[in-house]
Amino acid sequence: MQLETATVMEHELAGGDYRLLTLASQRIADTVLPGQFVSLGLVAPADAILRRPFSVCDAGAGRLTILYKPVGRGTRAMLALRAGDTLSLLGPLGHGFPLPPSDAAQAPLLPVLVAGGYGVAPLYLLARRYPRRGLLFVGGATGRDILMTSAFAALGWEVHVATEDGSLGEHGRVTTPLDTWLAAREVDARHDFFACGPTGLLHAVAQRAAAGNQRAWVSLDRHMGCGVGACLACVQRLNNDDGEKVWGRVCKDGPVFDAARIVWE
Amino acid sequence: MTQPAATPPDLAVTIAGLRLRNPVMVASGTFGYGVEYADVMPLAELGAIVVKGISLAPCAGNATPRLVEVPGGLVNAIGLQNPGVDGFIAQYMPFLRRQAVPVVVNIWGRRIEEYAEVAARLDGVPGVHALEINISCPNIKDGGHVFGTRLDTAAEVVAAVRAHTRLPIMPKLAPNVSDIAAFARAVEAAGADALALINSFPAMVIDVETRRPVLANVTGGLSGPAIHPIAVKLVYEAARAVKIPVIGIGGISGPREALEFLIAGASAVQIGSANFGDPAVAGKVVEGIADYMRRHAMSSMRDLIGSLNLL
Predict the structure, then answer these.
(1) How near does any CA of chain A get to the CA of B281, in Å?
(2) What backbone torsions phi and psi does residue A111 show, to the nearest 5 degrees?
(3) In a domain, B6, yes or no
(4) Mutate which of A31, A42, A43, A232 to test chain B, going by most B C-beta atoms within 10 A?
(5) Strand partners, B106
(6) Cβ burial A12-46 (10 Å sphere, 16+ → b, else e)
(7) Which domain holds residue B131?
(8) What distance in Å separates the CA atoms of residue B289 and residue B275, rounded to the nearest whole number?
(9) Is residue A226 classed exposed, middle or buried when 0-12, 13-18 and 19+ CB atoms within 10 A define those classes?
(10) Spatial distance between the Cα atoms of B76 and B86, rounded to a whole number of angstroms
(11) Which of B31, B81, B277 is opposite residue A49, by nearest beta carbon?
(12) Across the strands, what pairs with B69?
């Protein structure tokens, strides 16, 4: 974990109301792993107490990119950021998605990514770093909430889209094309799920993973206090190895968890 | 304007027999057990670390949501989640005793006997330098705050802890009492070596769309810049009422707020919520106090503490 001053390199629309913010980062950009996050120290609003956490969407060569939607006080204030502005950057934070070891004897299983809206952000860095290509299922309320699909396609990943209003891709939730694909799979075909999005989506993926005896890794999105495991605000009920229910810190022990450990409520 | 002092100012203070290299501590609940922030805030640069509150048995804390940001502050109802005193000693003391920083352990209980037992178990544990007694947490129904808002029980808790430890003890007082000086005198008489104030102020936030309380616990404690002027007034009154050192807490986000506490009579300060926004803020406050002392030709903390000018 490092604390550094980062400089805004690019700040651009990513479709819909979403923005991509690219920062020059001396140390964090080159150490962050897929599924980890960073927190930004905001200059405005002046009375904001907390930093704001963001999944890292892309990173490398001294630059990192986050994807955000201006929805609250902090993210709306971020709209004013311009190239050359500086801000406080803390990271890499938390534990991300497990990557198969590059020297594994067996080829990794087919990766199946499932995203809701800007949940594509950490999955894009995962796809960039994953040792084999796979599939992305992405859903959103409207076509304006479907982001970065061409970037995944450019990596050679197969992309399936669903929108609840039917304005892009299949009409329905992301589980519609996912279930179609799963139904066509051979019963004993193996794959790994990686998901990021609303809790309902993560739970749906966890249920499908459990039903098919597959593994699923889900990235939880929670309001955080400190982002480093100190304040215990963003805790999540987990099953431990002894079958007991314990708290996990989403910011420190997660944000990515084995879906089988989550106590879904 | 006065001339700058020739020698660097000495920021060391002695609190309850404990010598601190500077008066800037980090407040309980806002810095975990130190290990969480050590990468970005060298612990040896702190006056002391006050760890997250410890109880006799492990405590699961409250349901979520536990924290909400409001203009100028935070309202939290974490509920004192902690691994219990034995878990704390096993999990965190091996790391903490290797750090060149005094460790103050914040303790709490649901009954007076629990405070005494936690204190007894921490007495003699290598690396534990002092105990802060939490009699003012607003977030547990059957403990903490119950003791700290009554003079008799506040004194009883302090006396019980006093009887079970040789460590310096410093009760942490609640802000929502009618006469803070009376509480300061009561805990001093009961054997406190220092006192710390203020804890967070009881508070509540409602989501008007759903008409539900935002926090699962319904109510919580307000901290942050919003409570700083309240804390300065209470520190001022408490410091005038007692001979023991007072530690000022509440809404410090930079050197200026820390200096206000010191000028009002506090011998040291604790930084709380601001650690979340800037994990390195404590070091900046130390540097800012040193700068101030140079500008005002102050050579030691004696020149600064209680230097309020009422003329």
Answers:
(1) 12
(2) -85, 130
(3) no
(4) A232
(5) B132
(6) eebebebbbbbbbbeebbeebbbbbbbbbbbeeee
(7) 13-304
(8) 17
(9) buried
(10) 26
(11) B277
(12) B74
The minimum CA-CA distance between A105 and chain B, rounded to whole Å, is 36
The residue among B198, B302, B202, B193 whose CA lies nearest residue B242 is B193
Q: Could you list the active site residues of B?
A: 137
* ipTM value for the complex: 0.93
Task: Tell me whether A75 touches chain B (CB under 8 Å).
Answer: no
Domain ranges across chain A: 2-93, 110-219
Chain B residues lying within 8 Å of A5, measured CB to CB: none
Q: What type of residue is A85?
A: D
The reply to whether A232 touches chain B by the CB within 8 Å rule is yes
Q: Which chain A residues contact residue B203 at CB under 8 A?
A: none
Contact indicator for B78, B106 with CB cutoff of 8 Å: no
Q: How many domains does chain B have?
A: 1
- The closest CB to that of B277, out of A41, A228, A247, belongs to A41
* Element spanning B235, H or E: helix B228-241
CB-based contact A49 B69, cutoff 8 Å: yes
Q: What angle do CA A61, A63, A66 make, to 5 degrees?
A: 140
**Interchain CB distance below 8 Å, B277 and A1:** no
Measured in whole angstroms, the distance separating CA B254 from the mean position of its chain's CA atoms is 16
Q: Is A229 on the interface with B (CB under 8 A)?
A: yes
* Neighbour count for residue B139 (Cβ, 10 Å): 24
According to the CATH classification, is domain A2-93 in 2.40.30.10? yes
Tell me whether strands A135-140 and A215-219 are parallel, antiparallel or unpaired: unpaired
Domain of B30: which CATH number? 3.20.20.70
For A94, nearest residue in chain B (alpha carbons) = B36
Tokens of B239: 């410091």
- CATH 3.40.50.80 given to domain A110-219: yes
Mutate to test the interface with B, among A226, A247, A262 (most CBs of B within 10 A): A226
* Phi and psi, residue B258, nearest 5°: -65, -45
Do the domain assignments include residue B309?
Answer: no
* In-domain check, residue B79: yes
- Domain for residue B46, yes or no? yes
Chain B contact for A252, CB < 8 A?
yes
Q: CB-CB: which of B39, B74, B277 is closest to A1? A: B39
**What are A131's two structure tokens?**
């040792």
User: Which residues of chain B neighbour A88 with C-beta distances below 8 Å?
Assistant: 278
Q: pLDDT 10s digit of each residue in chain B, 311 long?
A: 555 556 789 999 999 899 999 999 999 999 999 999 999 999 999 999 999 999 999 999 999 999 999 999 999 999 999 999 999 999 999 999 999 999 999 999 999 999 999 999 999 999 999 999 999 876 665 555 678 889 999 999 999 999 999 999 999 999 999 999 999 999 999 999 999 999 999 999 999 999 999 999 999 999 999 999 999 999 999 999 999 999 999 999 999 999 999 999 999 999 999 999 999 999 999 999 999 999 999 999 999 999 999 97
- Which DSSP letter does residue B82 get? B
A 153-172: CB under 8 A from B: none
